[in-house]
């Protein structure tokens, strides 16, 4: 076993970070030690650092990553495998886990969300190594998939797979459906491709011209939100609407766009959001469905890996970087650039 120390970037509150050297941990039964090669900075970590989202502190942030297994006490894994891993580490014993809702385990622990001075210090991907817990879903990455999409699969990709599943649960299939995607960050762009590949006609809205261009290159019809709000009639009726911006206007647009029997999947509202008005009669008379998605199930991670192998997304164009681990604090102190993710090279 490698005895080199771990470099961990510990978030200590606000925009403050401290690079800490610590020894490699002793693994418990079922755990796996991964030497990280790449991480990607998710927008939800930016919400944490800016104070918009609550987070245990101090902690090692980062929940998107990929790396090589250095040591494992999981009999299903082998040293040397390249893997990515779930955001969630469920207990697999509570009633929610036993009924298949591990994403909302009663004893849930989360990658990049645990205290550095607690039971899972090396939980985040802004470090040279991460410990993966027993029962935490882990996916082996095929050689044909690069580190950047493999990292993004562990949060954005798998979350979109869960959102698409939620849409299908009510719409049966996306084939020939009219789908609206609201918000073209990383999740929205992946959702555009997923809906198009499922045979849907896709309209995508976002105020950012460059992001609309990325969606248009995949085959979506793109509209500026102001222009969309001015349109009327069938132009605003959709069978499925998926919301990834988290903005109140985005949520309202998503819900109000539904045709009869339409389904709205809300996935962007993961931080404090204003309450919006909802007309129960309109929902009831229209047989409309509104559902939410947060976290995902193990099979969604596998689906994301498979999906990305054939993805047409230009990962270089939609990401910034790479930067070093030492440069991560600076990345949080400046506004995010045109890229939807900043890549962190941990090699």
UniProtKB/TrEMBL annotation:
UniProt similarity note: Belongs to the zinc-containing alcohol dehydrogenase family.
Name of the protein: alcohol dehydrogenase
Pfam families linked to this entry: ADH_N (PF08240), ADH_zinc_N (PF00107)
Key word NAD present: yes
SUPFAM superfamilies: GroES-like, NAD(P)-binding Rossmann-fold domains
Phylogenetic classification of the source organism: Bacteria, Bacillati, Actinomycetota, Actinomycetes, Mycobacteriales
InterPro entries, A to Z: ADH-like_C (IPR013149), ADH-like_N (IPR013154), ADH_phosphonate_catab-assoc (IPR017743), GroES-like_sf (IPR011032), NAD(P)-bd_dom_sf (IPR036291)
Residue intervals of the Alcohol dehydrogenase-like C-terminal domain: 187-309
Enzyme Commission number, as recorded: 1.1.1.1
Keywords of the record: Metal-binding, NAD, Oxidoreductase, Zinc
Source species, domain of life: Bacteria
Domain Alcohol dehydrogenase-like N-terminal: 29-137
Needed cofactors: Zn(2+)
Cell inner membrane recorded as keyword: no
């Amino acid at each position: 076993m490698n005895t080199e120390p771990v470099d961990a970037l510990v978030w200590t509150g606000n925009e403050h970070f401290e690079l800490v050297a610590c020894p490699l941990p002793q693994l418990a039964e079922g755990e796996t030690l991964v030497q990280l090669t790449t991480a990607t900075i998710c927008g939800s970590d930016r919400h944490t650092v800016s104070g918009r989202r609550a987070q245990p502190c101090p902690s090692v942030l980062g929940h998107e990553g990929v790396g090589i297994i250095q040591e494992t006490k999981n009999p299903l894994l082998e040293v040397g495998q390249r893997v990515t891993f779930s955001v969630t580490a469920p207990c697999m014993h509570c009633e929610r886990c036993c009924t298949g809702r591990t994403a909302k385990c009663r004893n849930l622990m989360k990658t990049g969300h645990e205290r550095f001075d607690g039971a899972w210090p090396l939980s985040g991907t802004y470090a040279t190594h991460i410990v993966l817990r027993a029962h935490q879903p882990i996916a082996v990455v095929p050689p044909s998939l690069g580190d950047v999409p493999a990292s993004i699969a562990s949060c954005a990709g798998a979350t979109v797979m869960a959102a698409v599943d939620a849409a299908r649960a009510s719409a049966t299939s996306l084939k020939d459906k009219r789908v609206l995607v609201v918000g073209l960050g990383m999740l929205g762009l992946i959702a555009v491709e997923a809906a198009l590949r499922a045979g849907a006609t896709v309209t995508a809205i976002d105020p950012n011209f460059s992001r609309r261009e990325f969606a248009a290159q995949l085959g979506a019809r793109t509209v500026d939100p102001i222009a969309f709000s001015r349109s009327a009639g069938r132009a605003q009726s959709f069978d499925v609407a998926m919301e990834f911006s988290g903005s109140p206007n985005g949520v309202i647009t998503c819900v109000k766009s539904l045709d009869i029997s339409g389904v709205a999947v809300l996935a962007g509202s993961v931080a404090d959001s204003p309450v919006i008005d909802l007309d129960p009669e309109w929902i009831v008379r229209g047989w409309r469905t509104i559902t939410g998605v947060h976290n995902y199930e193990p099979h969604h991670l596998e689906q994301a890996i498979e999906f990305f192998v054939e993805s047409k997304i230009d990962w270089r164009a939609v990401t910034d970087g790479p930067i070093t681990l030492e440069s991560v604090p600076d990345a949080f102190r400046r506004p995010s650039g045109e890229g939807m993710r900043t890549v962190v090279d941990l090699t």
